[in-house]
Protein backbone atom coordinates (compact mmCIF):
# COMPACT_ATOMS: atom_id res chain seq x y z
CA UNK A 1 0.00 0.00 0.00
CA UNK A 2 1.35 3.41 -0.97
CA UNK A 3 1.87 5.92 1.82
CA UNK A 4 1.26 9.58 1.00
CA UNK A 5 2.67 12.73 2.58
CA UNK A 6 2.29 16.43 1.92
CA UNK A 7 6.08 16.83 1.81
CA UNK A 8 8.79 14.21 1.39
CA UNK A 9 12.45 15.04 1.98
CA UNK A 10 15.26 12.91 0.58
CA UNK A 11 18.38 13.51 2.65
CA UNK A 12 18.95 13.59 6.40
CA UNK A 13 21.75 16.16 6.61
CA UNK A 14 22.12 19.96 6.69
CA UNK A 15 19.58 20.91 3.99
CA UNK A 16 17.02 18.27 4.92
CA UNK A 17 17.24 18.99 8.64
CA UNK A 18 16.86 22.72 8.15
CA UNK A 19 13.86 22.11 5.91
CA UNK A 20 12.25 19.97 8.66
CA UNK A 21 12.80 22.62 11.30
CA UNK A 22 11.47 25.37 9.02
CA UNK A 23 8.35 23.40 8.12
CA UNK A 24 7.55 22.70 11.75
CA UNK A 25 8.25 26.30 12.75
CA UNK A 26 5.35 27.33 10.51
CA UNK A 27 3.07 24.29 10.49
CA UNK A 28 2.35 21.28 12.69
CA UNK A 29 -0.39 19.97 10.41
CA UNK A 30 1.63 19.33 7.22
CA UNK A 31 2.53 15.65 6.98
CA UNK A 32 6.27 15.13 6.38
CA UNK A 33 8.42 12.06 5.69
CA UNK A 34 12.21 11.84 5.75
CA UNK A 35 13.96 9.34 3.45
CA UNK A 36 17.65 8.53 3.74
CA UNK A 37 19.92 5.61 2.86
CA UNK A 38 21.68 5.75 6.26
CA UNK A 39 19.80 4.31 9.23
CA UNK A 40 20.82 6.78 11.92
CA UNK A 41 19.96 10.26 13.19
CA UNK A 42 21.46 13.25 11.38
CA UNK A 43 25.16 13.80 12.01
CA UNK A 44 27.86 16.30 11.05
CA UNK A 45 30.06 15.22 8.15
CA UNK A 46 32.36 18.13 8.97
CA UNK A 47 33.31 16.49 12.27
CA UNK A 48 34.04 13.01 10.90
CA UNK A 49 37.81 13.64 10.39
CA UNK A 50 38.00 14.66 14.07
CA UNK A 51 36.30 11.42 15.11
CA UNK A 52 38.55 9.33 12.87
CA UNK A 53 41.62 11.04 14.34
CA UNK A 54 40.48 10.51 17.93
CA UNK A 55 39.81 14.20 18.59
CA UNK A 56 36.13 13.72 19.42
CA UNK A 57 33.85 10.85 20.39
CA UNK A 58 31.52 9.18 17.90
CA UNK A 59 28.48 10.33 19.86
CA UNK A 60 29.48 13.96 19.38
CA UNK A 61 28.91 13.63 15.62
CA UNK A 62 25.13 13.46 15.98
CA UNK A 63 23.17 16.68 15.55
CA UNK A 64 19.96 15.28 17.00
CA UNK A 65 18.87 12.25 18.96
CA UNK A 66 16.64 9.47 17.68
CA UNK A 67 13.67 11.08 19.47
CA UNK A 68 13.94 14.29 17.39
CA UNK A 69 11.82 12.97 14.52
CA UNK A 70 9.00 11.76 16.79
CA UNK A 71 9.03 15.08 18.63
CA UNK A 72 8.59 16.94 15.34
CA UNK A 73 6.00 14.50 14.05
CA UNK A 74 8.15 13.27 11.15
CA UNK A 75 7.68 9.86 9.54
CA UNK A 76 11.13 8.34 9.09
CA UNK A 77 12.12 6.00 6.28
CA UNK A 78 15.77 5.74 7.26
CA UNK A 79 18.00 3.01 5.91
CA UNK A 80 16.05 2.96 2.64
CA UNK A 81 17.54 4.52 -0.48
CA UNK A 82 15.26 6.21 -3.01
CA UNK A 83 15.75 4.36 -6.31
CA UNK A 84 13.04 5.71 -8.62
CA UNK A 85 11.16 8.99 -8.96
CA UNK A 86 8.00 9.41 -11.02
CA UNK A 87 7.73 13.20 -11.07
CA UNK A 88 4.39 13.38 -12.87
CA UNK A 89 2.66 10.85 -10.62
CA UNK A 90 4.29 12.36 -7.51
CA UNK A 91 5.60 8.95 -6.50
CA UNK A 92 8.88 7.78 -4.99
CA UNK A 93 10.02 4.15 -4.91
CA UNK A 94 12.45 2.94 -2.24
CA UNK A 95 14.98 0.12 -2.50
CA UNK A 96 12.86 -2.21 -0.34
CA UNK A 97 9.89 -1.78 -2.70
CA UNK A 98 8.02 0.76 -0.57
CA UNK A 99 6.09 3.34 -2.61
CA UNK A 100 5.76 6.84 -1.20
CA UNK A 101 3.44 9.49 -2.63
CA UNK A 102 4.08 13.19 -2.12
CA UNK A 103 2.49 16.56 -2.71
CA UNK A 104 5.89 18.21 -2.87
CA UNK A 105 9.40 16.79 -2.79
CA UNK A 106 12.75 18.15 -1.61
CA UNK A 107 15.82 16.39 -2.99
CA UNK A 108 18.66 17.01 -0.56
CA UNK A 109 20.52 13.80 -1.33
CA UNK A 110 24.03 15.27 -1.15
CA UNK A 111 26.99 13.85 -3.01
CA UNK A 112 29.26 10.81 -3.09
CA UNK A 113 33.05 10.79 -2.74
CA UNK A 114 35.07 10.14 -5.88
CA UNK A 115 36.99 6.88 -5.57
CA UNK A 116 39.82 5.13 -7.39
CA UNK A 117 39.34 2.48 -10.04
CA UNK A 118 41.57 0.17 -8.01
CA UNK A 119 40.16 -1.07 -4.70
CA UNK A 120 41.96 -2.74 -1.82
CA UNK A 121 41.45 -3.31 1.90
CA UNK A 122 43.30 -0.16 2.95
CA UNK A 123 41.82 2.19 0.34
CA UNK A 124 39.09 4.45 1.77
CA UNK A 125 36.91 7.45 1.12
CA UNK A 126 35.27 9.57 3.80
CA UNK A 127 31.70 10.62 3.14
CA UNK A 128 29.36 8.56 5.32
CA UNK A 129 29.34 7.43 8.93
CA UNK A 130 30.25 3.87 7.90
CA UNK A 131 33.31 5.30 6.11
CA UNK A 132 34.32 7.13 9.28
CA UNK A 133 33.90 3.97 11.38
CA UNK A 134 36.09 2.01 8.98
CA UNK A 135 38.76 4.70 8.85
CA UNK A 136 38.78 5.00 12.64
CA UNK A 137 39.54 1.26 12.90
CA UNK A 138 42.22 1.36 10.21
CA UNK A 139 43.97 4.39 11.69
CA UNK A 140 44.50 2.69 15.03
CA UNK A 141 48.00 1.27 14.95
CA UNK A 142 48.79 2.65 11.48
CA UNK A 143 52.45 3.58 11.06
CA UNK A 144 51.97 5.37 7.75
CA UNK A 145 48.96 7.12 6.22
CA UNK A 146 48.71 8.48 2.68
CA UNK A 147 46.06 10.72 1.14
CA UNK A 148 45.53 11.67 -2.48
CA UNK A 149 43.85 15.00 -3.23
CA UNK A 150 44.53 18.16 -1.19
CA UNK A 151 41.07 19.20 -0.08
CA UNK A 152 38.88 19.56 2.99
CA UNK A 153 38.86 15.82 3.71
CA UNK A 154 42.43 14.66 3.07
CA UNK A 155 44.34 17.38 4.88
CA UNK A 156 42.23 17.42 8.08
CA UNK A 157 42.50 13.65 8.37
CA UNK A 158 46.29 13.70 7.91
CA UNK A 159 46.46 16.49 10.45
CA UNK A 160 44.57 14.46 13.06
CA UNK A 161 46.59 11.28 12.41
CA UNK A 162 49.23 12.53 14.84
CA UNK A 163 52.95 13.34 14.59
CA UNK A 164 54.01 9.75 15.36
CA UNK A 165 52.45 8.60 12.07
CA UNK A 166 54.32 9.02 8.77
CA UNK A 167 52.00 11.14 6.63
CA UNK A 168 52.12 11.50 2.84
CA UNK A 169 49.97 13.74 0.64
CA UNK A 170 49.85 13.20 -3.12
CA UNK A 171 48.35 16.03 -5.21
CA UNK A 172 48.14 16.66 -8.93
CA UNK A 173 48.39 20.44 -8.60
CA UNK A 174 51.39 22.56 -7.66
CA UNK A 175 49.97 23.65 -4.28
CA UNK A 176 47.80 22.56 -1.35
CA UNK A 177 44.16 23.59 -0.97
CA UNK A 178 44.23 24.82 -4.59
CA UNK A 179 40.42 24.82 -4.82
CA UNK A 180 39.97 26.46 -1.45
CA UNK A 181 42.50 29.29 -1.03
CA UNK A 182 44.57 31.57 -3.27
CA UNK A 183 48.30 30.89 -3.96
CA UNK A 184 49.55 33.27 -1.26
CA UNK A 185 47.51 31.59 1.48
CA UNK A 186 48.38 28.18 0.07
CA UNK A 187 52.11 28.91 0.40
CA UNK A 188 51.67 29.93 4.06
CA UNK A 189 49.76 26.75 4.84
CA UNK A 190 52.22 24.54 2.98
CA UNK A 191 55.06 25.93 5.07
CA UNK A 192 53.14 25.01 8.22
CA UNK A 193 52.28 21.51 6.98
CA UNK A 194 55.88 20.71 6.07
CA UNK A 195 57.08 21.98 9.45
CA UNK A 196 54.70 19.50 11.09
CA UNK A 197 56.25 16.60 9.19
CA UNK A 198 53.89 16.16 6.23
CA UNK A 199 55.62 14.62 3.20
CA UNK A 200 54.22 16.40 0.16
CA UNK A 201 54.23 14.99 -3.38
CA UNK A 202 53.13 17.80 -5.73
CA UNK A 203 52.34 17.46 -9.44
CA UNK A 204 52.09 13.71 -8.94
CA UNK A 205 49.53 10.92 -8.91
CA UNK A 206 49.16 7.25 -8.06
CA UNK A 207 49.61 5.05 -11.13
CA UNK A 208 49.75 1.63 -9.49
CA UNK A 209 48.66 0.07 -6.22
CA UNK A 210 49.65 -3.34 -4.87
CA UNK A 211 50.41 -5.15 -1.64
CA UNK A 212 48.54 -7.24 0.91
CA UNK A 213 49.51 -6.46 4.52
CA UNK A 214 50.60 -2.96 3.52
CA UNK A 215 49.85 -0.92 0.39
CA UNK A 216 52.62 -0.21 -2.09
CA UNK A 217 51.92 2.92 -4.13
CA UNK A 218 53.77 3.75 -7.33
CA UNK A 219 53.67 7.43 -8.32
CA UNK A 220 53.87 8.97 -11.78
CA UNK A 221 57.23 10.56 -10.90
CA UNK A 222 58.70 7.15 -10.11
CA UNK A 223 58.53 7.51 -6.32
CA UNK A 224 57.28 4.62 -4.18
CA UNK A 225 55.32 4.85 -0.93
CA UNK A 226 54.66 1.96 1.45
CA UNK A 227 51.67 2.80 3.62
CA UNK A 228 49.06 1.21 5.88
CA UNK A 229 46.09 3.05 4.42
CA UNK A 230 45.17 5.36 1.55
CA UNK A 231 42.47 8.02 1.81
CA UNK A 232 41.04 9.15 -1.52
CA UNK A 233 40.02 12.81 -1.26
CA UNK A 234 39.48 13.78 -4.87
CA UNK A 235 36.23 15.65 -4.36
CA UNK A 236 32.61 14.57 -4.65
CA UNK A 237 29.98 13.85 -7.30
CA UNK A 238 26.40 15.14 -6.70
CA UNK A 239 23.74 12.42 -6.38
CA UNK A 240 21.79 13.43 -9.47
CA UNK A 241 20.92 10.00 -10.93
CA UNK A 242 17.43 9.91 -9.45
CA UNK A 243 16.59 13.37 -10.82
CA UNK A 244 18.19 12.66 -14.18
CA UNK A 245 16.18 9.48 -14.74
CA UNK A 246 13.01 11.35 -13.70
CA UNK A 247 13.56 13.94 -16.44
CA UNK A 248 14.54 16.90 -14.25
CA UNK A 249 17.05 19.37 -15.66
CA UNK A 250 20.54 18.40 -14.54
CA UNK A 251 23.93 19.91 -15.38
CA UNK A 252 26.66 19.37 -12.79
CA UNK A 253 23.91 19.32 -10.17
CA UNK A 254 20.11 19.50 -10.24
CA UNK A 255 19.33 22.90 -11.75
CA UNK A 256 17.37 25.15 -9.39
CA UNK A 257 15.92 28.65 -9.63
CA UNK A 258 16.09 31.40 -7.01
CA UNK A 259 13.37 29.64 -5.00
CA UNK A 260 15.31 26.35 -4.98
CA UNK A 261 12.70 24.90 -7.33
CA UNK A 262 13.77 22.40 -10.00
CA UNK A 263 12.38 22.16 -13.54
CA UNK A 264 9.32 20.47 -11.99
CA UNK A 265 7.10 22.97 -10.10
CA UNK A 266 6.50 20.66 -7.10
CA UNK A 267 10.06 19.37 -6.73
CA UNK A 268 12.81 21.34 -4.99
CA UNK A 269 16.52 20.69 -4.43
CA UNK A 270 19.02 21.95 -1.86
CA UNK A 271 22.54 21.31 -0.61
CA UNK A 272 25.38 19.48 -2.34
CA UNK A 273 23.07 18.07 -5.03
CA UNK A 274 21.67 21.46 -6.10
CA UNK A 275 23.13 23.80 -8.69
CA UNK A 276 22.15 27.41 -8.11
CA UNK A 277 23.41 30.97 -8.42
CA UNK A 278 26.64 32.17 -6.86
CA UNK A 279 26.00 35.35 -4.84
CA UNK A 280 29.11 37.18 -6.09
CA UNK A 281 29.43 36.07 -9.72
CA UNK A 282 25.84 35.18 -10.53
CA UNK A 283 27.14 32.02 -12.23
CA UNK A 284 25.62 28.57 -11.60
CA UNK A 285 27.57 26.63 -8.99
CA UNK A 286 27.50 23.99 -6.26
CA UNK A 287 29.17 25.41 -3.17
CA UNK A 288 29.23 22.18 -1.18
CA UNK A 289 29.32 23.71 2.30
CA UNK A 290 27.14 23.32 5.38
CA UNK A 291 25.86 26.91 5.58
CA UNK A 292 24.75 26.98 1.94
CA UNK A 293 22.86 23.72 2.47
CA UNK A 294 21.13 25.19 5.54
CA UNK A 295 20.17 28.38 3.68
CA UNK A 296 18.84 26.49 0.66
CA UNK A 297 16.95 24.01 2.85
CA UNK A 298 15.16 26.88 4.56
CA UNK A 299 14.31 28.68 1.29
CA UNK A 300 13.01 25.44 -0.25
CA UNK A 301 10.84 24.70 2.80
CA UNK A 302 9.35 28.20 2.89
CA UNK A 303 8.41 28.01 -0.77
CA UNK A 304 6.92 24.53 -0.35
CA UNK A 305 4.73 26.01 2.39
CA UNK A 306 3.50 28.76 0.06
CA UNK A 307 5.73 31.64 1.11
CA UNK A 308 7.33 33.46 -1.81
CA UNK A 309 11.01 33.59 -0.80
CA UNK A 310 13.95 34.16 -3.14
CA UNK A 311 17.53 33.09 -2.42
CA UNK A 312 20.10 35.73 -3.33
CA UNK A 313 22.74 33.14 -4.07
CA UNK A 314 25.29 30.99 -2.30
CA UNK A 315 28.73 31.85 -0.95
CA UNK A 316 31.83 29.78 -0.40
CA UNK A 317 32.08 29.37 3.36
CA UNK A 318 34.58 26.87 4.75
CA UNK A 319 36.21 26.74 8.16
CA UNK A 320 38.60 24.05 9.34
CA UNK A 321 41.55 23.39 11.62
CA UNK A 322 44.56 21.63 10.12
CA UNK A 323 47.99 20.96 11.61
CA UNK A 324 47.18 23.22 14.53
CA UNK A 325 46.14 26.25 12.49
CA UNK A 326 42.62 27.59 11.86
CA UNK A 327 41.65 28.36 8.26
CA UNK A 328 38.51 30.09 7.00
CA UNK A 329 37.46 31.12 3.52
CA UNK A 330 34.42 33.23 2.66
CA UNK A 331 33.11 34.29 -0.74
CA UNK A 332 35.16 34.93 -3.87
CA UNK A 333 38.86 34.39 -3.14
CA UNK A 334 40.62 34.29 -6.50
CA UNK A 335 43.56 36.41 -7.51
CA UNK A 336 41.69 37.73 -10.55
CA UNK A 337 39.64 39.91 -8.17
CA UNK A 338 40.05 43.60 -9.16
CA UNK A 339 41.82 44.40 -5.89
CA UNK A 340 43.04 42.73 -2.72
CA UNK A 341 44.21 43.95 0.69
CA UNK A 342 46.53 41.79 2.81
CA UNK A 343 47.81 41.85 6.40
CA UNK A 344 50.12 39.31 8.07
CA UNK A 345 51.53 39.29 11.58
CA UNK A 346 54.89 37.44 11.52
CA UNK A 347 54.79 36.88 15.28
CA UNK A 348 51.31 35.36 15.65
CA UNK A 349 51.04 33.95 12.12
CA UNK A 350 47.67 35.66 11.73
CA UNK A 351 46.93 36.30 8.04
CA UNK A 352 44.06 38.17 6.40
CA UNK A 353 43.43 38.72 2.72
CA UNK A 354 40.34 40.59 1.56
CA UNK A 355 39.13 40.45 -2.05
CA UNK A 356 37.36 43.47 -3.51
CA UNK A 357 35.32 44.17 -6.65
CA UNK A 358 35.74 47.16 -8.98
CA UNK A 359 33.73 49.36 -6.59
CA UNK A 360 35.86 48.37 -3.57
CA UNK A 361 33.10 46.22 -2.09
CA UNK A 362 34.12 43.14 -0.12
CA UNK A 363 33.53 39.99 -2.18
CA UNK A 364 35.64 37.51 -0.22
CA UNK A 365 38.20 36.91 2.51
CA UNK A 366 40.80 34.34 3.50
CA UNK A 367 41.76 33.96 7.17
CA UNK A 368 44.65 31.97 8.65
CA UNK A 369 45.16 31.91 12.39
CA UNK A 370 42.31 32.86 14.72
CA UNK A 371 39.15 32.83 12.58
CA UNK A 372 36.42 34.13 14.89
CA UNK A 373 35.84 36.99 12.46
CA UNK A 374 34.74 34.67 9.63
CA UNK A 375 31.09 35.50 10.33
CA UNK A 376 31.91 39.18 10.17
CA UNK A 377 33.43 38.85 6.71
CA UNK A 378 30.45 36.74 5.64
CA UNK A 379 28.15 39.65 6.55
CA UNK A 380 30.39 42.15 4.76
CA UNK A 381 30.07 40.12 1.56
CA UNK A 382 26.33 39.52 2.00
CA UNK A 383 25.63 43.25 2.54
CA UNK A 384 27.90 44.26 -0.37
CA UNK A 385 29.77 46.49 2.07
CA UNK A 386 32.55 48.85 1.04
CA UNK A 387 35.95 47.86 2.38
CA UNK A 388 36.48 49.84 5.62
CA UNK A 389 40.24 50.24 5.01
CA UNK A 390 43.58 48.65 5.95
CA UNK A 391 43.14 49.19 9.73
CA UNK A 392 40.15 46.84 9.55
CA UNK A 393 42.54 43.92 8.99
CA UNK A 394 44.54 44.43 12.15
CA UNK A 395 42.22 43.68 15.04
CA UNK A 396 38.81 42.41 16.06
CA UNK A 397 38.03 45.66 17.93
CA UNK A 398 38.27 47.79 14.81
CA UNK A 399 36.42 45.09 12.86
CA UNK A 400 33.47 45.14 15.27
CA UNK A 401 33.35 48.93 15.17
CA UNK A 402 33.46 48.90 11.37
CA UNK A 403 30.61 46.40 11.18
CA UNK A 404 28.56 48.49 13.62
CA UNK A 405 28.94 51.49 11.27
CA UNK A 406 27.80 49.35 8.35
CA UNK A 407 24.73 47.96 10.12
From TrEMBL:
GO molecular function: oxidoreductase activity
Pfam families recorded: Pyr_redox_2
Presence of the UniProt keyword Flavoprotein in the record: yes
Domain FAD/NAD(P)-binding: 5-297
Record key words, sorted: FAD, Flavoprotein
Cofactor section: FAD
Family that this chain belongs to: Belongs to the FAD-dependent oxidoreductase family.
Protein name: FAD-dependent pyridine nucleotide-disulfide oxidoreductase family protein
Organism (species): Geobacter sulfurreducens (strain ATCC 51573 / DSM 12127 / PCA)
Amino acid sequence: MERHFDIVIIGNSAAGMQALRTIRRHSRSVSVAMVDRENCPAYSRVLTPYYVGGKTLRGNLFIVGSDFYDHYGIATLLGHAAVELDAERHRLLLADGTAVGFGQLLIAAGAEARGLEVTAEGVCTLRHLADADRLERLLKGARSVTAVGAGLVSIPLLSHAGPEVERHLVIGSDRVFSRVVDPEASAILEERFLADGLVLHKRDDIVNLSGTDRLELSLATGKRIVTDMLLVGKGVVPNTDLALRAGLEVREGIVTDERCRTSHPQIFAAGDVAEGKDFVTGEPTIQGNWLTAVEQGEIAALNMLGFDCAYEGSLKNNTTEVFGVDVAVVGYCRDDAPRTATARDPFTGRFRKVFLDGRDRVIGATMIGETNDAGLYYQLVRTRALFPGPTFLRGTGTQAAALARLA
